[in-house]
Design brief:
This protein has 13 helices and 12 strands. The chain is an alpha/beta fold. It has a single domain (6-389), classed as Amidase signature (AS) enzymes (Alpha-Beta Complex), CATH 3.90.1300. The longest helix is centred in the C-terminal third of the chain and has 24 residues, at 285-308.
Length: 401
Amino acid sequence: PLHGVPVSTKINVDQAGHVTTDGVVAFKDNIAEKDSPPVANLRKAGAVIVGRSNTPAFSFRWFTNNDLHGITLNPWDKSRTPGGSSGGAASAVASGMMPIGHGNDIGGSVRHPAYACGITGIRPTMGRIPGWAGPPSGDQAPSTQLMATDGPLARSIADLRLALTSMSEFDPRDPLHASVPLIGEPLQKPIRVGLLRDVGIATPTSAVNQALSDAAVQLTEAGYIVEEVSLPLFAEAYRLWYLLVMEDFRTALPVVEQYGDEGMKKAAFNYFANAKEWWGDNPGLSDYIKGYARRGTLIVQLQEFLQKYPLLLMPVSTEQAFEQDADLFSVESMRRCMDAQWSMMAIPVLGFPAISVPTGVADGLPVGVQLLGRRFREDTLFDAAEVIEAHAQIKTPIDPR
C-alpha cells in the first residue's frame, strides 16, 4: 500500500544499520541491528525510508532541538517551535520533504507537532500500532507500556488513513498489540459530538476558540449534532500524568544528568518543580499505586460518556505554537506550556485515540482542533476530520521561511 512512498522515521526508534540517537550526543554511535516494529511495518508496506527525523534529547520536550543534531525550525515561523517531540517529522512533512512521517506520542508528541506545523497527526488507541521504545533486551517503564504509542503524520487525512493501516500489522514484540478491525460498525446517526473548550486549567486563545467554533459549525452542517459539554475528568487525568509518567522518568534522571544536554536538564527541573504542587517533592509507592487505581476509574467515566457522545471536539493546545524554548525561560513559563497542553497529557493517561487536524492560519501560524473517539474507532475520527479538512484554509507544503 505504500509502495514507493517516501517516509521518515523518528531518531528515537531503531532502524537497522542506522543510529538511534534519541537526540543525545553520547548515543551518536548507537547503531541498530534490527528494525523496530513500526519501521518494520513501514518497510513491509513498501515505503521508502528517506531520512531520520529530529527530536529533543530523550524525546521529552515540545521543542525539537538538541546538542547532537541542532534545532528544528517551524517552516511557518522560525521563532516558533515545530512542536515536540516529533517536531522533525512535522516540519519535514509540512515543508514537503515527504508525504508521511513516523512519530510517537506519550505526551502529545504526534498531535502537537502536527498542530504546530499545520498538518494532520493521529495518536491511535494503545495497542493499535505495535511499538517498542526500550532497548532490545531491556524492560519498559509501566507508563511507556501503557501510554506511549507510535503514530503517523501527514498532509491529508487520506494519507493518514493509509499510513495507519500500513503501520498496524501485528508484531510479537509489542505486549499490548490487538488485531482489531480498522473499520467498526456504523455509529447510530445522527452522531453526537461533545464540544469541550475548557476544563478549568487554561483558557483557549481567541484563535483556538474560533477554530473550535468553525469546526463545530462544519460538523453540524455535515449532519453531526454538536453540543457543548463539561468533563472535569480531563483536568484530573492531566495532573495524573505528572505523577505516573514523571515518577517513571525520575528513575531515568541519572542518565539524563550524565548524558542530557542543558535544555533537557532544565526542562526536567521545571517539570518536577511544577508537578510537586500536586504530588509533593517525592511521591511514594502508595501515591503511585493510588494513581494507577484512579486512572482506571477515569477511563470508565470517559467510556460511559462516549456512549452518548462517540466523539469529542477539543483543543490540541490552548495556544498556537510556542516561542522556541519557552519551556526553559522559567518554572512559570514551563507551567504556562504545561497548562496549555492539558489535553496532550490527559489523553495518553486515558488511552483513547485522538487526531489533530488543521483548520487554518491565524496571525501567520497554523491553528486547528483535536477529535477524540472510542477505543479502536479511529475510523470515526477520520470521517469527522475529513469534514473539517474540507473547509481548512491552509496550504502545505510551504517554503520554509
